User: Fold these one by one.
Assistant:
Number 1:
Amino acid sequence: MPALQEKNKQGDKGGSKQKGSSAKGGRGLFAPHRPGEGVVARRVALTIAALMWIIGGYQLYDFLQSHDAWRVAWGGMSIPLIQLPLNWALLVSVGVFCGGGLVSLVLMNRIDATDFLIDTETEMKKVTWPTKDESVNATTIVIITVAVLGLMMATFDVVLQWVFKLVF
């Protein structure tokens, strides 16, 4: 009997799947891959995607509002407090925004995208960032170099204009 129990324990360790799990480890559509890792990179990426979809939705709304067929309000209804008319332009714009947000969320949870964001955050933690003094010194050098090169180019331009006026 103990041999059978030992065999059952070893059999359970051999990778028996839980109910409802898939070949990818039981991840659902919105379940994060490697949770707790790359949190900052994921948040930044999703924030940028959200801003892009907000701006895109607003631009689409403005574009659709310029056409009479999209602008007609449904029975004169509007959204309270902001007095935004309920029409097809608003419906399509909100739909594109929500659909785009959903697509962004799904794409950010893909294994390859998640691994890339996690690796990016890991590498950014390894970077040795300059101190404030080093940044100020480097910026000063760049500004002076650009100013000197600008003055040299202006001088060459004036001299060459003068030479070409004399020659031609």
Number 2:
Amino acid sequence: MDYSATLRRGWQIVWKNKWLILLSLIPALGGLGFLLVSFAGAGFPTDPSTMTPDMLSRLGTRTLLLSCVSVLFSLVIGIIGLAARGGMIVGVAGVERGEAYGFGRAFRAGWRKVLSLVGMTILLYGVVLALYFAMIAVLVLSLVIGAAGAARPRVTGRACWQAWAYW
């Protein structure tokens, strides 16, 4: 295989169709959004000895809310990124066939392919995603039980363990 000819042809396609650069930046900008969401939790106090039960309860609520927003944000950004990747694939294939493609047409074509791309992504990363969501569930449930215990000090560790085992 002639790699230099392949790279040269790829560069020619991108240079003639600069909208491909914009399509490739959409998933990259999603990473910037993840960075912003991760900095949203930077104001959490970290020394539990100085926290009152009310502060622990509020911390648990804020953490749960931030976790939910982060998961929803990542799902939306991930789907938009898949649509952009699908648009790049369809757009380059169309340009190679001699069809006229632009940013909007390629993104719409990629959006129509999102379901199949989501299916392929789940097949590729299914085990990792399952472990990720299981860890999130354990973390969120632990925070909720801890916040409930901090809000009501009469709740014993045994009651928390029973709630955990029931779940």
